[in-house]
Amino acid sequence: MVSTVLIALLPLAAIAAPRCVEDDVGREVCLEQPAQRIVALSPGAVELLFSAGAGEQVVGAVSFSDEPPAARKVPRVGSYKRLDLEAILALKPDLVIAWRSGNPAAQIEQLERLGLTVYYSEPVRFAMIGGTLERFARLAGTGPVGKPVAEQFRAGIKALRERHDDAKPVTVFYQVWEEPLMTVNDQHLISEAIRLCGGVNVFGGLPALTPRIGREAVLGADPEVIIAGGMGEDNPAWLDPWREFGSLTAVRRDNLFFVPPSTLQRPTPRMLEGTRRLCKHLEQARARR
User: Fold this and answer.
1) Is the Cβ–Cβ distance between 132 and 121 less than 8 Å?
2) Separation of CA 22 from chain center
3) For residue range 123-179, what is the model confidence (pLDDT) as tens digits?
4) Which strand (E) or helix (H) includes residue 282?
5) Signal peptide span per the entry (predicted)?
């Protein structure tokens, strides 16, 4: 009789056991039960949570959290650079997903002092995107949804890497912002996408993650390809000023390409789509030599 009772209680014990994961700063984050009220403090984290099957549990988001479309209906709690702490507290979240390098550190620390559970998210490599999906799914109790999405992303990245493993190098300038003119160095996730496609970031050696540069520096580097994001998902206007510089190799060969910014500038599964586009553009550049 005793053994039967113990066996019957095992599933309940498993459900009641704390679910613990390690966040991207190496801290253990534990919840007694799946998170039901999640506040996400970056557009990328919002998208990752929806991809992990936890969209219905997201009760607060920051401005520009626009993917998937359902995320646009989530109440706002300020911008990622300036959080509305009162709005966050009013939502009574059982989990807050913070952006380590993007959110104001003092505000996040204040949320922790007030007793909120904070997970610091900072996926800086393709491998970390899949892992983040799985950890979010564990915290939210949506593993059956999140795990297949993570596996599909890993498989897609692996296939792209194998396809372009022997591709001839192409020098690339990636424009992440127009005014001030900004790019990325080799430590940035975007540069991993560039390398995967056989590209060489002409500003990869700069010390800052997202360095500010001048147009003279781009002219001096003379990249074979210029890739730009933009102010919107279908607005390639940032490429137009470069057409004035006919001496640039990228201009002479018509290698000015646009990639929708949210597909490369957010660490989400849609980076697979953005990287595919990037690889296609570099293949076009090789064909125009």
Assistant:
1) yes
2) 18
3) 999 999 999 999 999 999 999 999 999 999 999 999 999 999 999 999 999 999 999
4) helix 271-287
5) 1-16
274 and 179 in a single domain? The answer is yes
Q: Is the pLDDT of residue 32 over 50?
A: yes
Amino acid letter for position 194: I
H/E stretch holding 22 reads strand 19-22
Burial zone of 166 (CB within 10 Å; 0-12 exposed, 13-18 middle, 19+ buried): exposed
Beta bridge partners of 31: 19
Considering the domain architecture, whether residues 65 and 139 belong to the same structural domain is answered as yes
- Neighbouring residues of 259: CB distance < 8 A, sequence distance ≥ 6: 227, 228, 229, 274, 277, 278, 281
Under 8 Å CB-to-CB from 106, ≥6 apart: which residues? Answer: none
Looking at the domain assignment, is residue 160 inside a domain?
A: no
**CATH classification at residue 99:** 3.40.50.1980
Q: Scanning the structure block, which residue is given the tokens 């989530």?
A: 74
Contact indicator for 119, 42 with CB cutoff of 8 Å = no
Q: How is residue 123 annotated by DSSP?
A: -
> Does residue 56 sit in the same domain as residue 111?
yes
- Which alpha helices (H) appear in 17-142, and where do they start and end? 43-51, 85-90, 105-113, 126-140
